[in-house]
Design goal:
heterodimer, B: mainly alpha, MetI-like fold, 14 helices, 0% strand, globular
Amino acid sequence: MSTLSNTLTSKKSKLPLGERLKREWKRNAIVYIVLIPVIAHFIVFQIYPFLLSFYLTFMDWKVIGDPEFVGLKHWKYLLTDKLAWKAIWNTVVFSVYYILPTMALGLLLAVIINSGVKLAGFFKGIFFLPVVTSFVIIAGIWGWLFGGTEAGMINYMLSFVGIEPQLFLSNSSQALAVLAGLSIFKVAGTTMIYYFAGLQSIDRGLYEAARIDGASSFKIFWNITFPLLKPIHFYVAITTTIGSFQIFDSAYLLTGGGPSYATTTIVYYLYEQGFTSLNLSYAAVLSYVLFSIILIISLIQRKFLGQDSKHY
Amino acid sequence: MFKKISTYIALFVLGFCFLLPFAIMILGSFKDVQFAQIDPLFWIPDPPTMKNYIYIMRDGMFLRWILNSVIITVIPVATQMLFCAVLGYIFAKKQFLGREIIFWIFMAVIMIPQQLLIIPKYIMFSDFGWINTYWALIVPELWGIMGVFLVRQFLQSIPNDLEEAAYIDGANDIQIFFKVILPLAVPVVATVGTFSFISNWNDLFQPLIYLTQEKMFPITLGLASMLGKEGNFGIEMAGSAVSFIPTFLIFLFFQRYFTEGIQMSGMK
């Protein structure tokens, strides 16, 4: 493809620029007619806001009145803001609760679906259902399941094994884990789809050979299937990590960042600073913190996925 | 044999766990208030009541929230399917100046989280007078980079023969797009549509920022405000169940497009 366009441009470069543009316009007029409004839209709703938010971090943006240039004030404040660091820490803890269980559950579901059971398509649909359901619906049910009194259903079930009612969402050391549980339930269906595709692409002949050699199913899974899924593990790990750093909905809906800031994640803190305290400039700084984290994770993905793509 | 039985047990136990929250939603929506607050097993069959559904239908706000959600979902879904199909075709098949660089910039921008753009967009939309209007939620969503990427990916795998044959027969670009490309791209355009439906119908974050008036709320924000008011569980579940119907229908008919879309987006 690139060689073709190279030869095209080199041939055309002998013509004067005006003539070249004229010919290009004649050939692709319709393409440019479509692209110009699209690019204008792209600049207005993506590029300009991106630049504006960077500019915002150096200003004191007031709801009424002119913005004032304050240099690095907000960036300096970030370094001393204990709550911001707590929010980052909470988000990291959330990721720890969330990433591996989501991957493990997704893999388990995919293995079961792929094992030749009847009704596999039906169950695949059931496991995928939470993915398309809104956070609001699931949070409403989750809040009731994990109600912090004897009336909560999970507490009711725990009472049978002699465990005292737990506070769950009102307990600062349990709340984040309950929110992670909600996300695991909601996202495992997506991980299942990736793993299912991976499992389907594994050559059946490998299993046959191992079985003839007398390997048990368990050994086949750990020694053949699991290592062959390496590129999928990697891709899923990256996407769930990026997702986990953007967690907001469940904290907003169920805990409001509490109790005592235990579920104040990066995005929740950003929301609170920007839209409750109306400190938009500092919220912009926080959004750059989030962006940097996601950018680093994405760059790791690009670097490694390039090397691993031959496995597909 | 043992392996087979244990696989089925795992399948049914997991299936039960995944369905339980939905069962609670449906059964809970037919229950009377007081039960919800005292008995953890209130959702187990008991004389059902339509009270909660009647309440939300008479409430006035609820139907308005559904209507708002329909408006801010249907328009972007339609335009996303059209624009992403056209743009995907252009980037897959057309040779024009700046094609690689424009696409490269699109793909780089996809990494910017929407939480970063929402702060400057809030300021912009305040200036535009778009706060508490549908514009703030519709105009930015008219097309999407991810959709363009999916269509481009799909069309690149299709040989150019058909298109070239149509050119030789004297068809122009517009005719080729509608008569040759679009019929081929139906599955991927359906994927773009379903993705767009789910992201707009379920979106909570953007409406939360741009809308403050209750009558402008989409159903997600409406339900969230019910949740916040410590309202009664039965009514909340009835609201959830009604708002879930469109999602469920789309899911039922287009599940294949969801899962294929997820797999395709993973092939970057």
